[in-house]
TrEMBL record:
Belongs to the peptidase M14 family. It comes from Sphingomonas hengshuiensis. Signal peptide: none annotated. Pfam families: Pepdidase_M14_N, Peptidase_M14. GO terms for biological process: proteolysis. The active site is at E333. This is Peptidase M14 domain-containing protein. Coiled coil: none annotated.
Length: 372
């Protein structure tokens, strides 16, 4: 029976190059109108009972090739449970071998979060008591930009995810956040609903998500370099969300992402903004410290270098919101690898752990909401 490779589905990305016996050679397609690529998601049929080696031949030219060493692809036979499979990276090629015992098996860079699941999530949460839904605008492909608002307190909190569509862990985190915030028996959620108005945008980049992009929207634009001057023709997603933020104001914000190389969860702040004050920055540092105390799935030692004074990139949302609103804003990065300080050999960093981390993030916010 012949082996069949297919990625023609929501969020799919791979290009078959050659199939030679039990060896399958592949390439990842670039984002439309962009040189970015690294996200892959494909299914394999016709390989049951065979031990197959998959080789991604163009891994060395990807956006972040330094992320491949130590990385393990995810695989699933039911599209619900995603486990890791060992991989090797050498001479620009990522290779992994599996004995396949099912008619169909799926592989992905990280556990996928489809646009269909996104719509299920938004519909389910919007129907719950105390939740308000708004469509902030539409994307270049005509998809809705969904915002769910919970609570009626004076502090304006914005949580938004998946500016980079291949960073699917970000929407798993949002699913966990939404479930917690709508739990009427959850004490920290009750406190937040009373003291804050929380606006959540589960997916900032629906077009890139559906197209199987790593980092850009339908125009090939990196949305997290558009926050200083978004436009309707290049970045309507950012324009719609930033306009809504201008209407409400922003006291606290988390932009949720994934990182290819660093095997840890960490926060990046807004050091280097022109209006930096130690009081504003101190609230960010306190939040990070308290989050690290709250969960073993967060740490303070690994992360990005801080910008020098006055050198912050204001096209990035975290810096723009801190400068624009005086907000305590931050970027949460989760790994494609694992949180090595609290590792899981079978699942690595996983959807379930993304959701649990969201709970810890909200618990931490509840503990200091009065000071934000």
């Amino acid at each position: 029976m012949s082996i069949h490779i297919n990625a023609a589905f929501d969020g799919g990305n791979i290009r078959p190059i050659a199939i030679d016996g039990d060896r399958v050679d592949l390439e990842i397609a670039t984002d439309h109108a962009s040189d970015f690529y690294q996200w892959f998601h494909f299914r394999v049929a016709g390989a049951k009972g065979r031990t197959v080696t998959f080789r991604i031949l163009n891994a060395g030219g990807s956006a972040y090739p330094f992320g491949w060493p130590g990385y393990a692809p995810r695989w699933s036979t039911d599209r619900e449970t995603w486990r890791t499979t060992p991989a090797d990276y050498a001479d620009g090629v990522l290779s992994f071998t599996r004995t396949i015992d099912s008619d169909i098996v799926w592989f992905a860079y990280f556990a996928p979060y489809s646009m269909e699941r996104h719509h299920d999530l938004v519909t389910r949460i919007a129907a719950l008591p105390g939740v308000r839904h708004r469509e902030l605008g539409t994307t270049l492909d005509g998809q809705p930009i969904d915002c769910l608002t919970i609570g009626d307190g004076p502090k304006q909190v914005w949580l938004y995810a998946r500016q980079h569509p291949g960073e699917t862990m970000a929407e798993w985190w949002m699913e966990g956040a939404l479930e917690k915030l709508t739990d009427l028996a959850d004490a920290p959620a009750m406190l937040l609903r009373a003291k804050a108005t929380i606006h959540l945008v589960p997916n900032m980049n629906p077009d890139g998500s559906r197209r199987g992009h790593l980092r850009t929207n339908a125009a090939g634009v990196n949305l997290n370099r558009e926050w200083h001057s978004p436009t309707p023709d290049k970045s309507p997603e950012v324009l719609a969300v930033r306009n809504a933020m201008d209407e409400s104001g922003v006291a606290f914000a988390i932009d949720v992402h994934g990182d290819e190389a660093i095997p840890a969860n960490f926060l990046a702040g807004f050091e280097g903004i022109p209006s930096w004050t130690d009081a504003q920055g101190g609230k960010f540092y306190r939040y990070a410290r308290e989050l690290a105390e709250a969960t073993p799935d967060f740490q303070l030692d690994l992360g990005y270098e801080k910008a020098a004074p006055g050198k912050a990139n204001l096209s990035m949302s975290t810096n723009q919101l801190a400068e624009r609103f005086g907000a305590v804003s931050m970027t949460l990065e989760m790994p494609f690898k694992d949180h090595d300080a609290n590792a899981d050999a079978e699942f690595a960093w996983s959807p379930a752990r993304c959701k649990t981390l969201a709970h810890a993030c909200l618990d931490t916010l509840a503990g200091m909401i009065d000071e934000i």
